[in-house]
Design brief:
The complex is a heterodimer of chains A (about 120) and B (about 110).
Chain A: E1 5-7, E2 10-13, E3 19-24, E4 31-37, E5 44-50, E6 53-56, E7 65-68, E8 75-79, E9 88-95, H1 100-103, E10 106-107, E11 111-115
Chain B: E1 4-6, E2 11-14, E3 19-25, E4 33-38, E5 45-50, E6 55-57, E7 60-65, E8 70-75, E9 84-91, E10 101-103, E11 107-112
Classes of the chains: A mainly beta (about 120), B mainly beta (about 110).
Chain lengths: ~120, ~110
């Protein structure tokens, strides 16, 4: 597609519920990133894929967070047993090459998760 | 200490005026620097890269000071449409860290008539 597509745009989850957030990057983009943005804060890095390989997951806040990109295209971020502190906007970004600092990121519109 | 720090603002700017703000970064090995713009409830979008010699893009000027580890953004002749949050972004050069960019918390700019 023309841009990075994320779904759903909004998700309300009851505390303890599992959620799955989808990211469809720009076709042909090698690198894919997930960020978490709390209200009034800058985006915080969660994890990074190069094709299907998850090269960095140092930002995932707990073992309740899991991400995958099995065929090197679409990615899913899963949060198990959601907690109120998980409420945030989850942003996906993709980059053409292996070096995002050369090519920059293109962000999707994000998924706004509210845990009640 | 956060890797990338910004004054959150808001900077209240009269239309037509000039505004400038800085961002400091902690990793002296960082090589790539960017300014992103984020409108309310929208995703961040690349505004401009920051080059060592400084660079200009229309009314926007970015500067890099490696010795003091800060970058700056200056907006001339401010327009109402410049109202947004400006995110300072720095690469993490550690190979083990992969390829990620680190974002500051953002500086909010409000341009008023």
């Amino acid at each position: 597609g023309a841009g990075v597509s994320q779904s759903p745009r909004y998700k309300v989850a009851k505390r303890g519920q599992d959620v799955a957030l989808r990211c469809d990057p720009i076709s042909g983009h090698v690198s894919l990133f997930w960020y978490q943005q709390a209200l009034g804060q800058g985006p915080e890095f969660l994890t990074y894929f190069q094709n299907e390989a998850q090269l960095d997951k140092s930002g995932l806040p707990s073992d309740r967070f899991f991400a995958e990109r099995p065929e090197g295209s679409v990615s899913t971020l899963k949060i198990q047993r959601t907690q109120q502190e998980d409420s945030a906007v989850y942003l996906c970004a993709s980059s053409l090459g292996f070096r995002a600092d050369t090519y920059g990121y293109t962000f999707g519109s994000g998924t706004r998760l509210t845990v009640v | 200490r956060k890797e990338v720090e910004q004054d959150p603002g808001p900077f209240n700017v009269p239309e037509g005026a000039t505004v400038a703000f800085n961002c400091t970064y902690s990793n002296s090995a960082s090589q790539s620097f960017f300014w992103y713009r984020q409108d309310c409830r929208k995703e961040p979008k690349l505004l401009m890269s920051v080059y060592s010699s400084g660079n200009e893009d229309g009314r926007f000027t970015a500067q890099l000071n490696r010795a003091s580890q800060y970058i700056s953004l200056l907006i001339r002749d401010s327009k109402l449409s410049d109202s947004a949050t400006y995110l300072c972004v720095v690469n993490n050069p550690d190979k083990a860290a992969g390829n990620k960019l680190t974002f500051g918390g953002g500086t909010r700019v409000l341009v008023k008539p």
